[in-house]
Design goal:
This protein has 334 residues and is α/β, with parallel strands linked by helices. The chain folds into 2 domains: 10-189 and 234-259, 3-Layer(aba) Sandwich (Rossmann fold); 192-230 and 262-333, UDP-galactose 4-epimerase, domain 1, CATH 3.90.25. Helices cover 47% and strands 16% of the residues. The strands form 3 sheets. It has a 7-stranded parallel β-sheet with strand order 3-2-1-4-5-6-10, sandwiched between helices. A 3-stranded mixed β-sheet has the order 7-9-11. α6 runs parallel beside α7 (160-179). The N and C termini lie far apart (75 Å). Mean pLDDT is 94; it is low at 1-18. The structure holds 2-amino-3-ketobutyric acid.
């Protein structure tokens, strides 16, 4: 009788685990979150994906599947959505980026750190099984070797955002080592996309420049000539994000965050790439406070560890990105 009761309860648990197979994206309306939601919905089916953000998204986001208004800093609210939708995997994409975080340090710390603690603790308590958390090239600082920056190196970030990301990396590794939490992470470079615009980052110029080129034929760049930064086309970033979550547990060797590289270029190089499509396009330079941030970041990244551990390889170079951006944004401005 006892044996029967035990096997029945084990069966029920297994059923629960089986039923708990939804994905929650926190920060689904942001630059990465929007495209990640679309990609996950098309891969797993709309019913399996729950998009959430502090505000409503566009029509496509709201109508194509589950959506919840969710404050990532509210533990009870996050737990409630996880419970109601039987979520087992969380992509925590909510964050305040580098430029805006300098204006609101306390708010940035609260959002970037507490949201991570909530999700890590939910995983530690067995309420979810797997977590993705984004880090950034902002974890590096002025004392880091800035060409081909290694996976393991000096890390002394000097921005609020960079400090929060580096701290987050330490906590991710701690929760894996101490509690076995399966958290995976990537250090994103600047991301380029025509679907969504970035908000409050230092690499935002690299998206804005295409919009201005098509709209005004001219761009006033807030970074100076020669400011080379690591960048990546969004499709590559989404492929990496979903890719790292697919990898077998034992193949993930880095539990802080993986270096990830696409292309590296300076404003004058993207200008030349745009001029192949819009010969009259011009640029002038008016560096502001974001120059100081960019000056502390690497020029290029060594991502050989990600290539080795889980077969990462980028696909898009600068001219390929420019072609896609111009072709897809042109109808908006003509
Ligand atoms: C930013 O510029 O803040 C972000 C980043 C590199 O993490 N795009």
């Amino acid at each position: 009788m006892i044996k029967f009761a035990l096997s029945l309860s084990r069966k029920r648990n297994l059923n629960n685990i089986h039923m708990k197979s939804r994905i929650l994206i926190i920060g689904a309306c942001g630059q990465i979150g929007t495209e990640l939601t679309t990609a996950l919905r098309s891969r797993f089916g709309a019913d399996k994906v729950v998009a959430s953000d502090i505000r409503e998204g566009d029509e496509g986001m709201m109508n194509a599947g589950h959506f919840e208004i969710l404050d990532a800093t509210d533990y009870a609210a996050v737990e409630d959505v996880i419970f109601r939708y039987k979520v087992d995997t969380v992509y925590l994409m909510a964050a305040m980026l580098s430029a805006i975080a300098e204006r609101f340090p306390a708010k940035a710390w609260d959002l970037n750190m507490n949201s991570l603690f909530h999700v890590l603790n939910l995983a530690k308590d067995g309420k979810i099984k797997k977590v993705f958390w984004p880090s950034s090239i902002a974890v590096f600082g002025k004392t880091t070797p800035n060409e081909n920056t290694p996976q393991m190196t000096v890390m002394e970030p000097s921005t609020v955002y960079g400090i929060s990301k580096q701290t987050g990396e330490r906590w991710c590794e701690y929760y894996y080592n101490k509690y076995g939490v399966d958290v995976r992470s990537i250090r994103y470079p600047g991301l380029i996309s025509y679907t969504t615009e970035p908000g409050g980052g230092t690499t935002d110029y690299a998206v804005d420049i295409y919009h201005r080129a098509l709209k005004h034929g001219h761009y006033r760049c807030f970074l100076k000539e020669g400011t080379t930064l690591p960048m990546m086309y969004m499709d590559d970033a989404i492929r990496a994000t979903i890719g790292i979550m697919d990898v077998d547990l034992e193949d993930i060797k880095i539990r802080s965050s993986y270096n990830l590289a696409g292309v590296s270029y300076a404003p004058e190089e993207v200008t030349m790439s745009i001029q192949k499509h819009l010969p009259d396009f011009s640029i002038t330079y008016e560096p502001d406070f974001r120059q100081e941030i960019a000056d502390t970041w690497p020029k290029s990244i060594d991502d050989s560890q990600a290539r080795k551990d889980w077969g990462w390889a980028h696909k898009f170079d600068l001219d390929a990105i420019t072609k896609i951006m111009i072709e897809n944004l042109r109808p908006r401005y003509t």
